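Is this the right way to post structure tokens for a design question? Let me know if I should format differently. Anyway, here goes:
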């Protein structure tokens, strides 16, 4: 019973780290990459559809992105979604695709994105700690119901603390890399 609780908690913590990695990928750096558009949606025939499902993304140069819709009817909806987003990009439309020239990030904007990255990292840390707390509560409930011993509970707590530290360190490592990427000129 206790090994199952620890295993489940470890899986959930790993998912929290993966979620943090996805969140970091949406934060714009000086380079163009398709993950910047993963949270954007366009109104495609009355349905909000993720841009990743509507178009292909190519980056011929570090600060240039070419967005080619699979259906030409979606071109204007994609253009509107990108223009209205917080990316700070104005797409140029050639009738078949959109060309995005990403402006150089100002120091102020870099600091703003760094704050955003730190906030996302803290959300991930809180999620990991909550998973540990729930797992510890489950273990203590087993002890209370006399289904496990106090020694088993202490061992489980140590294992959960070790897993928690490992996953929080992973989030911190992701944050350091993202900050270095953001502050790189």
């Amino acid at each position: 019973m206790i090994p199952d609780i620890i295993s489940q908690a470890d899986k959930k913590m790993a998912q929290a780290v993966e979620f943090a990695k996805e969140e970091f990928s949406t934060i714009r750096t000086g380079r163009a990459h398709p993950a910047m558009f993963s949270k954007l949606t366009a109104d495609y025939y009355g349905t909000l559809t993720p841009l990743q499902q509507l178009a292909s993304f190519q980056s011929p140069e570090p600060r240039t992105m070419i967005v080619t819709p699979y259906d030409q009817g979606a071109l204007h909806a994609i253009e509107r979604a990108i223009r209205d987003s917080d990316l700070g990009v104005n797409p140029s439309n050639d009738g078949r695709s959109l060309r995005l020239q990403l402006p150089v990030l100002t120091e102020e904007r870099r600091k703003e994105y760094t704050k955003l990255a730190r906030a996302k990292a803290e959300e991930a840390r809180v999620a990991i700690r909550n998973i540990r707390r729930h797992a510890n509560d489950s273990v203590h409930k087993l002890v209370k119901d006399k289904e496990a011993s106090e020694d088993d509970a202490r061992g489980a707590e140590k294992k959960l603390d070790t897993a928690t530290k490992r996953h929080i360190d992973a989030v911190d490592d992701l944050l350091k890399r993202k900050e270095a990427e953001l502050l790189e000129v």
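Format looks fine. Someone answered above. Worth noting: The chain has two domains: 2-25+106-183, 34-101. The two ends are 51 Å apart (CA to CA).
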